[in-house]
Design a protein that fits this description.
3 copies of one chain form a homotrimer. With 113 residues, chain A is of the alpha+beta class. The first copy, chain A, has a single domain, classed as Alpha-Beta Plaits. Chain A is globular and about 45 Å long. Chain A is built from 3 helices and 5 strands. The longest helix of chain A is centred in the first third of the chain and has 13 residues. In chain A, strands 2-3-1-4 form a 4-stranded antiparallel beta sheet. In chain A, strand 2 and strand 3 form a beta hairpin. Helices cover 29% and strands 38% of the residues of chain A. Chain A starts with 7 loop residues before the first strand and ends in an 8-residue tail after the last helix. At the A-B interface, strand 1, strand 2, strand 3, helix 2 and strand 4 of A face helix 1, strand 2, strand 4, strand 5 and helix 3 of B. Chains A, B, C: This is Divalent-cation tolerance protein CutA. Chains A, B, C: Belongs to the CutA family. Chains A, B, C: InterPro entries: Ion_tolerance_CutA (IPR004323), N-reg_PII-like_a/b (IPR011322), N-reg_PII/ATP_PRibTrfase_C (IPR015867).
């Protein structure tokens, strides 16, 4: 799948509560797997085992480096209460130089530290 | 326009009411043109026929396969009450394998069924 | 950084108040640096000078042409109250032809006018 020669990206995941969202966000920030994470409430409609469902969820918008995605997936899956959490990465193709430098300097990989 | 060799994507559209948003979402899910659709309120500022407008809208975040985009556009346009609805696709460049497999298995094209 | 051979895109920035968000949005629309801007509240968690912060912010989703990004960055930075505002561009890889034509005809560059 990786179609990914982009340095930075926005990773989306949804959670079932604000508390879990903030717990995941703080853990990712503490481990420098993301530099900034936004969170807001929404409703999700989806098909699960053939049934349509409608749940209140919280969306996380995780701004990070895409070379950290593998560690980020592992960390989210370890903290998430869903069996198959949404974890999808959208590419940042351009942006303010100072912001992207800040994003880069506030993220690091355990593998490289 | 299609710049699109990405398998999965996030399609954005806005609607004027929560009811219409949910009606479009349920129709797309029933026809397996999307696997998960999130919806939340926002305000939109835009220029229409030279005038600036500010409306309360609802944003749909449609998670799907980008080879379904043509059918998805037709379905949204048939249900939408705007003359020119926003329908834009952002590429998913990477993500959790299990989630993307679930996304793929919960979407299908009428053309292929 | 520019990884950007995409014509259209969604530019994200966050601001500290709804008023500032709308002021920036109206300025971008007046100068035809964007055709439509959505705004909604969220919470952001981030690291700044080694400290974790949690603020209420407003997210702007700016729909525009990516060849305007340099002017757009300059305009946002001139109006923004942050030292290093988030300004990141996600690519639109496909969409409704009529909407993208509307997007194109409602945006222009000072450099080309």
């Amino acid at each position: 799948m990786p179609d990914n020669n982009f340095e930075y990206g926005v990773v989306l995941t949804t959670v079932s509560s604000e508390e879990q969202g903030k717990a995941i966000a703080k853990s990712l920030l503490n481990e420098k797997l993301a530099a900034c994470i936004s969170i807001f409430p929404l409703q999700s409609l989806y098909t699960w085992q053939g049934e349509m469902n409608q749940d209140r969820e919280w969306q996380l918008i995780i701004k990070t480096r895409l070379d950290l995605l593998s560690e980020l997936k592992t960390k989210i899956q370890s903290l998430h209460d869903y069996e198959v959490p949404e974890i999808i990465a959208l590419p940042i193709v351009d942006g303010s130089k100072s912001y992207l430098q800040w994003l880069g300097s506030n993220t690091t990989s355990d593998l490289s530290s």
